Amino acid sequence: MSVTGDLDSLESSPASPHQSSGLSERTLTSEELEKLRNDRVLVSDFKQQKLEMDAQKNWDLFYKRNTTNFFKDRHWTTREFEELKNCRESQGQKLVLLEAGCGVGNCIFPLLEEDLSIFIYACDFSPRAVEFVKQNALYCTKRCLAFQCDLTKDDLQATIQVETVDVATLIFVLSAIHPDKMQKALEQIYKVLRPGGIVLFRDYGLYDHAMLRFKSGNKLGESFYVRQDGTRSFFFSREYLAGLFQQAGFETLVNEYVLRETVNKKEGLCVPRVFLQSKFLKSVPSLSPA
C-alpha cells in the first residue's frame, strides 16, 4: 500500500456535502507552503529511469495485490458528465466510448449496466487489469472490447479506426504517465476521436492532500511523485492541463478545480481533496469557401 493508498481508494466518489468547483487553486496553510518549499530533493536519475522501465510491472503488481477490490465502481460518471447519457437512440446509433486506462472496469461496467446503446473500447497499461475486465460477468464482446495498450508508445489505431470514437474518458489515468509522455497519449486519443468528439477528464489537482502527504525522498519533479509501491502520480494545475490538450489539438470546454473534503475514518482525519474536472473538444473542421 502506498503512502497515499487510503486516499487514492476514495478518488471515485465526488458527491460530497462539502464540495465546490472553480478556477482558483486551493489556498495552502503556512505549514503546507513551508513543507513544499523545503521538499527540494529529487529521486536520482538512475532510480527515475528504473521506475520508468518498471512502470508496467509496478502497475501489474498493484492489480495482483489488490485485484478488483481497491477502487469503488464509478456510478457517478453519468451524473458528472452528461455526455455519457447520450445514447443516440433517436439516430439509431450507439455511443462509441473509449475508456483510456480502464483498470479493472470500475467505470465501464456501471455504464454498460445503465446504457444499452453504448459500445466501449477499454484499454489499460496493465495486462493483468485487462484480464480482470475480461473475467467480469458483465463483459460481452458485442458491447465491449478490452485490450492492453501503452498509450505512450503502442499504436491505438491498431485496434480502433481513425475518427470513430464519440467520447473518450481519462479518469485518474494521465497522472500515472510520465509528464514527458503525456503529450503522446493525448495525440493518440485525438486521432481516434471523431470531429466533434469530447474527452472527459478527472484527475488529481495541484495541492491535493495526497500530494502534501508525500514524504521527502518521493519527489520526481515538479508536482510529480512516486509512491512506495513504485507507481507514480502527477498533480495538475488548470494551466498545465489546458496547455497539454491545446498542444494536442483540443479546445477547452470546461476546466475546473473540484474542492472537497474526504473523511479518512481509519486515521480520523477530514482532509482537503483537489481534483481537476474538464472537458476537451476535437473541433469540427470548418468548410473552406468554394
Automatic annotation (TrEMBL):
InterPro entries: Methyltransf_12, METTL2/6/8-like, SAM-dependent_MTases_sf. One of its GO terms (molecular function) is tRNA (cytidine-3-)-methyltransferase activity. One of its GO terms (cellular component) is cytoplasm. It catalyses: cytidine(32) in tRNA(Ser) + S-adenosyl-L-methionine = N(3)-methylcytidine(32) in tRNA(Ser) + S-adenosyl-L-homocysteine + H(+). Residues 98-199 form the Methyltransferase type domain. Residues 10-19 have a biased composition (Polar residues). Keywords: Cytoplasm, Methyltransferase, Nucleus, S-adenosyl-L-methionine, Transferase, tRNA processing. The keyword Nucleus applies. Its EC number is 2.1.1.-. It is found in: Cytoplasm; Nucleus. It comes from the Eukaryota. Monomer. Interacts with SARS1/SerRS; interaction is mediated via tRNA(Ser) and is required for N(3)-methylcytidine methylation. This is tRNA N(3)-cytidine methyltransferase. It comes from Sinocyclocheilus anshuiensis.
